[in-house]
Amino acid sequence: MGIYLSIPKTEKFSEDGENDHLRYGLSSMQGWRATMEDAHAAYPDLDTSTSFFGVYDGHGGKVVAKFCAKYLHQQVLKSNAYTAGDLGASLQKAFFRMDEMMRGQRGWRELAILGDKINKFTGMIEGLIWSPRSSDGNDQSDDWAFEEGPHSDFAGPTSGTTACVAVIRNNLLVVANAGDSRCVISRKGQAYNLSRDHKPDLEIEKERILKAGGFIHAGRVNGSLNLARAIGDMEFKQNKFLPADKQVVTANPDINTVELCDEDEFLVLACDGIWDCLSSQQLVDYVHEQLLSETKLSTVCERVLDRCLAPSTTRGEGCDNMTMILVQFRKPTQSPEAAAEQSTSNEQAESEPKPEESQS
Could you tell me which residues come within 8 angstroms of residue 336 by beta carbon, excluding any fewer than 6 positions away? Predict the structure, then answer.
């Protein structure tokens, strides 16, 4: 449930941007929660042909969400798979890489910088209340070198985050998701989920959790975490006999690749604070309705947050942190030469006698 404020914080962080292929707006709001644990990333020009958008919904602290917002897209870019054109593989590697980078002295130091505060007596930071007795090894690459220090054996944070990321290159959309944030696309007004909510009671998740030595109680992994996949949460990833994708909780993302078409209007990335209140289709319908009178996409996002915000904390729904990114696709424009050819063709067609309409 989390700790609630007596009055919600409704101030919003909002942003808009665009390029030749798309435009986007985003907004985030703390709401009734005592702290803001969401983070996001929006890079319409990750490189000359690629856009990157991500929503990270933290739990147990905000540091892992902030870490992913700072580094995950950078690791996608650095991947050999990305250079080779395999966006799905580069995203999967980047998700696992987040857990690797947060281990050891350097990971601890970076999380300490991103965290709210350090306890002067214990040296521990927000969400970092558990540490292993022995080193798990530090398999670090050259761009994230191992550092000696008092936290060299730090196995990573017990706080964690969901990660729902969309990468757009030309007419290709690749979605990577771990957790219960969600990506939805609107195609001719119809909502299509491009990610799956990773809840512990899903059969494929339950099977992995039990095989790894975990259990599910009251819909939560080991009675505490209501997600089956997440970045961070290293206390659930300590089975030394299993690979990263077979742990009780895994950062392994589902990858969904979609070929965009002219019927695709926009996509939405949002944390579960919004999906708890609106179904995918309800949100798509609401966005369509707002776009009839509002052109600024961040304003549309702000209105969604206001609509989802609960009037009180009695029920729980509408009381979470909320973050939403709205990406609208631009329709491809014709080159001047193609437009001139089309114009000439239309003129010729108009000068020719039209066939008589058939009678029904």
Answer: none
Closest CA to 161 of 269, 40, 11, 268: 40
CA dist 248 and 244 (Å) reads 9
* Residues with Cβ within 8 Å of residue 71, at least 6 apart in sequence: 98, 101
**Six-digit token string for 59:** 């739990």
SS3 171: coil
Structure tokens belonging to residue 171? 């007419």
pLDDT tens column, 276-324: 999 999 999 999 999 999 999 999 999 999 999 999 999 889 999 999 9
- Reading phi first (left if > 0) and then psi (alpha if -120 to 50, else beta), residue 159 is in beta
C-beta separation of 182 from 170 below 8 A: no
Q: At which residue do the structure tokens 């799905």 appear?
A: 88
3-state helix, strand, coil in the chain (%, to 5): 30, 30, 40
- Residue 294 structure tokens: 């509002």
Per-residue confidence (pLDDT) for residue 143, from 0 to 100: 77
Which of 53, 58, 56 has the alpha carbon at shortest distance from 15?
A: 53
Q: What are phi and psi of 191, to 5 degrees?
A: -85, 130
* Structure token pair of residue 243: 């690979």
Prediction pTM value: 0.86
Whether 331 shows a pLDDT value over 50: the answer reads yes
**The tokens of 176 are what?**
């990577």
Residues in the chain: 360
Which domains, and CATH codes, for the chain? Answer: 7-332 (3.60.40.10)
Mean pLDDT of the chain: 87
